[in-house]
């Protein structure tokens, strides 16, 4: 298995929470320069509109960096206009703008040599009972994604789900709803970005979700990180759930998946370059661990279905 490692450019900039700011707000040139220092990196995930204040200048900087663009990440949540929703905004004009922005992101992806955009519609959903019309919201979401997909079929639209944030209940909250939306839209170039951390907080088994998305032909992109299943902390891969990470890598290998792994990992201590270098090294070490564990041996334990025997082998292999 040869995986391609991409870094989300947004994670190389400002990192903050409600109480502290941990990293400065680096500009695009500074973030690209840091990414180039990361060992093992193959590409970047760039954000529209945030990284495209000057489209020509951005394109030139990306070209000069020599880094491939794994995807253009469409951010339609942060600007004030999206406060009431994007694809599901009650205002038809705003819904149309969300579709227009997705089409722009598709064009930018093509210009930068990528075949994919990814989008997590975090501002779409609700906070309270009786706050929104669920039937209208879902219809609007379908209509918006379908309209964007009809624009061009050479650029994949990869939809990222998340249980909550910014909404208490995001409309695209889990893998089931993401796959349902793909089927409702009915276009082969509409699929799913599976963020490991988002799967964990949805109480999903990441490897299982990866497998069913791939089986459906909808696994387009993977964001790697980790958390303790209570909040999306964007921690180093495998730092909490080591066997979930190894199991995911096992299924990626078994499926002979050749897509991108993009790293959505936050640096609250230390520096971005060290954090992202460690991130890629951890995943590569996980792949080597598969060799040590033995793929056929793992499959044998799966077919046997007796956890005690499997875990004895897993831990003895680490000794």
Descriptive report:
With 319 residues, this protein is an alpha/beta fold. It has one domain (4-293): TIM Barrel, CATH 3.20.20. It contains eleven helices and twelve strands. The protein has helices spanning 28-36, 55-65, 92-111, 134-149, 175-185, 196-201, 206-215, 242-254, 272-293, 295-304, 307-318, and strands at 4-8, 15-16, 21-23, 43-48, 68-74, 116-119, 125-126, 156-160, 169-170, 190-195, 219-224, 260-263. The strands form three sheets. The chain has an eight-stranded parallel beta barrel, surrounded by four helices. Strands 2-3 form a two-stranded antiparallel sheet. Strand 2 (15-16) and strand 3 form a beta hairpin. The longest helix has 22 residues, at 272-293. The relative contact order is 0.12.
Proportion of beta-strand residues: 15-25%
The CATH topology name reads: TIM Barrel
Could you tell me the radius of gyration in angstroms? 20 Å
The structure class reads: alpha/beta
CATH superfamily: Divalent-metal-dependent TIM barrel enzymes
Distance linking N and C termini:
25 Å
What share of the residues lie within helices? 40-55%
Taking all residues together, what is the mean pLDDT? 97
**Arrangement of strands in the largest sheet:** 1-4-5-6-8-10-11-12
Count, helices: 11
- How many distinct beta strands? 12
CATH architecture label: Alpha-Beta Barrel
Oligomeric form? single chain
For the record, the count of structural domains works out to: 1
Helix-strand sequence: EEEHEHEHEEHEEHEHHEHEHHH
Largest sheet entry: 8 strands, parallel, barrel
